[in-house]
Every structure is written in structure tokens, then in C-alpha cells.
Amino acid sequence: MGTQLMDRIQSISRRSRLNQNLIIDEQGLRIGRKVLIDPQLLPRNIVNSSLSFCIAMRGSNPNLSAIIDRLNQDQAMLKGSKTTETYFGVQVASQFSRILFVAPDFKRFNKFVSPPLGLERIAAFLRNQNTSVDIEILDPNLLPDREIFFEQDYLLNRGYDIIGFSTLTPTLKNDTQHLVRIAGQLKAGKKPIFVMGNFGVLLGAEKLFSALPQLDLLFWGAGEQPMLTLLQDLQQSASISQTSELAKLFNALSNKHPEAIATRSNQRQFYPGRRFPAITKGQLDELQVLIDYYAIRYETYWTTYAGLPEAQRDITFHTSNTSCPMRCLFCATPKGALSFVAIDQVVAMFEHARLAYPEVHYFSFTDDNLFIRNKGKKQIERIASAISASSSWNESLTFYYQARANSFGPADITLMKKFSSVGFRDIAIGVESFSDTTLIELNKGSTAEEAQQAVSILTNNGFSPVVNLILFPPNITLKALADTIGTAMKLSRNPKTHIDPNFALLAYSGAPLTKKKEGSLLTDKDQRIYKLEQPWIDKTRVEYETVNINETPLAIPDRFSIIRPLLDQLRKKSEELSIIALEKTETKHSDQGRRGLMILWSIITIVKANQALFKVEAGEDTRVALSAFAGMIDLFPEVIKSRYPDEEEKILIALRQITNIPKL
Which pTM value belongs to this model? Predict the structure, then answer.
């Protein structure tokens, strides 16, 4: 065996957990879509074989080089007269199932993209539990030309048995179109089983099955166990290509997992808006630790970090279930008890990631619910303490995580200083608004004062907070908008604070407000705890994005309409103007703080140009709001100077050159 190959195998053995199936084919030796060894490095007999091989790596430190050497000498395996053999306790097979998972498509080429950890977890679980399966994850967000890719022969030639789509409400339009394209491309070949899961299927089984005749199954909740059952049943079926046999398989599957599977003939339980069950703590501990971070194609994802320094190439972790105890009326997250991965396992994940990618110094915890209430706060404290005590930690590392605006106050300053000292100092805060009126309407459970206090505590103790805002919720008034933008501008004078605004309140299938507007079943308790009887709710509506699939229109919730027409115009025009401002000032998408300021500038500038109009139908206290906006215009140059002293004049000149300010 060549020196180069031996060196490469030793490197893989150090960096990978090697607890999943490896595939050898014309691409080389790979896990999923990540090639670990180029084909030219593999032994000649294996390369010359017309077959592919699945190596079921299991146990403690299996000898990969010895397995490859034995396979290279096994002529019966290489010629196909024998389809399975065991070398040193590891099964190698030339006949195995193929699965393709397609990630939600946000259309984010050349913008920041993260790996779909939910799919990575399912893939790791299946590769670990089934010795004869190859699983690839296709992320359309990495493709510059999606339509061209989906028309190529690559997918056709792979011979997939199952193709699964992970979909979210905002990506459902793109995801369903990809499903149709792939199905159309594969119609001449073997028909795979098409499945769909994740929060996008909360749209409802009836709607999705009606619009997508190619779709076979919907997965409702965690997909690991149902997908494993589907794979095993499929491998045990002899004549699965026949429609009658498929029907039997699907019926058997729905009987085994009645709460998790929807079929065309059994979809009564899967009505629009029905929530997912939250994953249990036992499932979380069992599944999350299986992920091999070296098997994830992080190198490919880092190429999308346009404008970000190499120091912020990150590894992402998810360490909790998807449940959340809070009652924001726009959120579709399942309600239930918080569950967290055991601390020793979190440390094991971190240490493995450090071995897999020793050059990485930035780590992101993607959990929505770390730091929620005392239970979450204690969890992140334990995580920070345990990781900083690990031999894999050093002072050069930085950690990112997320919190609510009321997650910490003055009593937590000592704790926050501790977090900052060990690298846990990049944090995103779901503030949503600096208007108490708006926060009450959204049932956010926090106040504007708490949010301002939180940002101040963070910036004064070594943090760089990202403040997430929803600028135009349905019942927005000019005064509420002024409160939010005014506070955001003042906080932005500190270069550590980054404002990350969203223009509108998105409508997610399964969220209480969406269900209310769509007439879905809501209990009296739901109505009460989510405050769904507020008068403004009757006045807003869900705006849909319609996609025609197979000549069947599918209406997908998009956002909630703005009640006051003038403010709705302001939202639309400021979105358009902000795009121009971003281009003129050469603002990179990765610079969240600067991007946020360009959005705020756009709104302030349009309000200034249309002051006379805002004296009507802009809500109460309009005169106060207009006075506040006038002050923001004067404050803007000061904010730019404090944040970008070397580019101050360049930025301000570029903005002054934008003369076509929209009239409302």
C-alpha cells in the first residue's frame, strides 16, 4: 500500500470517529458526499473493479488500511461472485441501498450557509444502524445553478432507493419545485420513494399530497426511527417496485409508527397546524453523539463565507431538543419540556470537532433555547465550564450562542463575565422590538427595558451582541417603529452591537397566529395563553406565496399583512431602498451591523421625505414619532463615525448620492 494512502488513512483515523458506513466507488472513498480519499490513491484492483463497496465501520478504532488491503486481494468480492464479506470484524458489501436527503433551499449561494444538522444527525444514525446503506446530503444552498444541476444525469445515475426532503415554511416553495424536477428526471429509471419532513409539512398532509402526486410519505416529527424502519422494510422486500407491494409497505410502516407517518391512505391525524412531538432526552443523547463532524463537508460550507475572516470559519453544534416553553404567538416550535444533551457528551462533541478540524477556532451553538429560564441558563453555564476545563480548549477559541432579551439582568453580570473570559462572547438576542406595545401584542414575554439592559450588560462585559428585530409586525404604528429604530440607533453607537432587522413578521404553518387566521383547531387554553383574542388580529391576514406544482396551486404562508396601508408602503419601499444602499456602500452580507444600519437609514430617509403623509393613518402619537425620526437623521453620521471611522466619509457620500428617495 502506497505511502500517500497510508498517510491519508492515518489522518482520517485521527480526525474521524469512523463509526459510520464508508463508500468506495468511482469518486474514491467517501462518507456521503465528502470524499476522504481520491480514487487515484486507492489500490489498483479496487479502482479497476466495476463495483462499489460499503464498509460498515464499527467498534473501537477499526483498522481501515487493513480492511482496504484485504478487499484489494479478494477477487471474489471485486468480481461480484461474492457480495458480502467480513474483514477484521467489519462487514463490506457490494450491494447496498442508496438514500439522498435534500436540505431546505433558502437560495443562499455566495452567502453564509450552515450544514443542515438535523439531516446530518439522521444520516449518521442510519449509517451507524444499517450496515448496507449509502446516504448523501444535497444542499441546494451550495449550488449556483440549481435548475441546471437538477436536470443533469448525476441524480439519474445514482439509483437512489429513497429521496427525502427536509422543508421549512419559508423554503417549501423551492423544496417542492426541486422534488418535481428530480421526479421528472428520474421517471425513465427506477422510481425511488419520495418522503418529506421537518416543519414545512405542518402545512398539512392533504394539501401536500394533493399538490405532489410524486410524494409517497410525510414524516411528522423526529425522522430517525421511522426512516430506519422504512429502510429495513425496503431492504427485506423482494418486489417493491410494484404498486401493490409499495402500498403494503407503506401501510405496515404507518402501523409501526402511527404518530410519525402520513400516507395517502392514512392522513387523518396530520391536519394543518398539528404540532410535532418534541424529541426526548434519551433520544437526544443517543442520536446527537453519533455525528461525525469530520464527515460533514465544512470545507465546502466555508467557501460561502464571503467577506468573513478565516478566524470565523465555524463548527456548528446542536445540543438540545426543539421544544420551547415560551409562548410567542408567531413561533411554530413544539411546546414541551426542555431537554439537553448530557454535559459530558457536549464536551465529547467539542473535543471530536477540535480533532476533526484543529484549524477552527470558532464554534456555534445553534440551539434556540439555550439560556431560556433558569434551566437553560444553568445548562450553558455547565457547558462553558466543562469546555473550558477540557484539554482541547484554549484562549483563542470563540463560541456563539443565542438568548432571549430577558435571559439575564444585573444579577447575572458575574456569570456573563465568566462566559466572556472563556470565549462564550458572541451572542444573538431575539429582541424583536424596542416597543412595549409590540412586545405585548406578540406575546413575547419580555420588555423593551429588559432588552436595552441586556445589550448594555453584554457590551460592557466583553460581548458582541447581534440584536434580532422585527420592524413591521402587523399592528405597527409609526410611534412603535420610532421606538424600535431610535433605540437600535443609540445602541449602534457602540461598535460591538450589531442590529439584524427583519422587515416583516413571517407566517409559519403551525404557529398559533397562523392557525388562528387559517381557522385551524385551537383550544380555549391556546386562545388564552397566546392572547389570540386581541382586536388587531382580526384586522391582519396571512399573505401567501403560491406555487403551481403539477398544475395544482399550493398556497404557502409567507408573512402577515401590515394593517395600516401607509406603513405597509413604507415597509415595501424601504426594502427596495435598502438594497440600493447596500450596493452603493459596498456593504457585505456578512457584516450584520452595517447591513442593519443601511436598513435603518432607508426607513428613516423615506419617513423624512414623506412627513406630511404620516400625519394620518399612522397610529397614535404620530407627531412624537416624526420628531423622533428627525433626531435619528442627525444621529446617523455619528453612528457611522463611531463604527467605521476609516470609511465614514465614503459611506456618507455614497448615501448622499442616492437621490431617488421613494414617495409614498
Answer: 0.94
